[in-house]
Specification:
This protein is α/β, with parallel strands linked by helices. Helices cover 29% and strands 24% of the residues. The longest helix has 12 residues, at 13-24. The radius of gyration is 19 Å and the shape is globular.
Length: 178
């Protein structure tokens, strides 16, 4: 539909899916990430490492929190919306006094939280993945026994994409490994 959509934390697993879904919906996607590898191939029209100098946007999907959330809020056009759907930075968001108040058309800020049953949405997403229209990037794959290594790599931001842990096929296989 031509709306300008900014996705922060776009190199992560959720961010990469968001880039693809926004592009599929006809948006002009601006992907913000420390590492932008492969984001253009997923549909980003622009790949940036910071938010300085960007033109205003209609929608923000904000994954980082903290100072990035505050900066992204400043880019939302009147009538636009920011969806805060993650807090990877772990930092507090400190808005200047009156930064969230504006004259004219309101800007909206939504935080992630949905009490509805996600089953239908997940089924639709899986259909897109199965049809090859959306790709989930696997950044690390290994056996269940290496879960500690996988978690450390994820928390240290050494992985772009999702982690897949291979589980044993049966209880007997678990016992023979011990």
């Amino acid at each position: 539909d031509g709306r300008r959509v900014l996705i922060t934390g776009a190199s992560g697993g959720v961010g990469r899916l968001a880039v693809q879904l926004a592009r599929r919906g006809g948006a002009h996607v601006i992907a913000a990430a420390a590492r932008g590898d492969g984001l253009r191939e997923l549909g980003a029209a622009e790949v940036v490492t910071g938010l300085d100098g960007l033109d205003p946007v209609d929608v923000v999907l904000e994954h980082v929190g903290g100072a990035t959330l505050v900066a992204a809020w400043g880019l939302v056009k009147p009538g636009g919306i920011l969806h805060s759907i993650g807090w990877a930075s772990g930092e507090p968001a400190r808005f200047a006094p009156y930064a969230t108040i504006s004259l004219g058309p309101a800007r909206r800020l939504h935080t992630f939280g949905d009490a509805s049953d996600p089953g239908k949405d997940l089924a639709g997403l899986l259909d897109l993945v199965a049809a090859g229209e959306v790709r989930a990037q696997i950044g690390w794959r290994g056996p269940w026994e290496r879960i500690g290594e996988a978690a450390t790599a994820l928390l240290d931001r050494k992985i772009a994409g999702k982690i897949v842990l291979d589980l044993p096929a049966s209880h007997d296989e678990i016992e023979t490994r011990q």
